[in-house]
Amino acid sequence: MNQQQKTSGTIMDVSLAMVLIALLFVGVYNTITTIRLAKQIEINKAHMCGVTAMVFGPVAPEHYKEMCDILRDDLYQEWLK
Q1: So what's the pLDDT on residue 5?
Q2: Is the separation of the CB atoms in 45 and 60 below 8 Å?
């Protein structure tokens, strides 16, 4: 093998390794972002359930989640208008 073929092979190997490392970093970043987003959604839902208690007054524990979801749906429909 001549020097030019060795150099081009090395460049291809380094390029492939860099692309794979970049894909690994992107995958880790997306996973972390998805986990953070899921936590933020839960926090927002907890806040909305607190607002439910303020709007509807004391709600029986068995209906609390249902009332919270109804209020969230109502707000979403209002925002769509």
Answers
A1: 64
A2: no
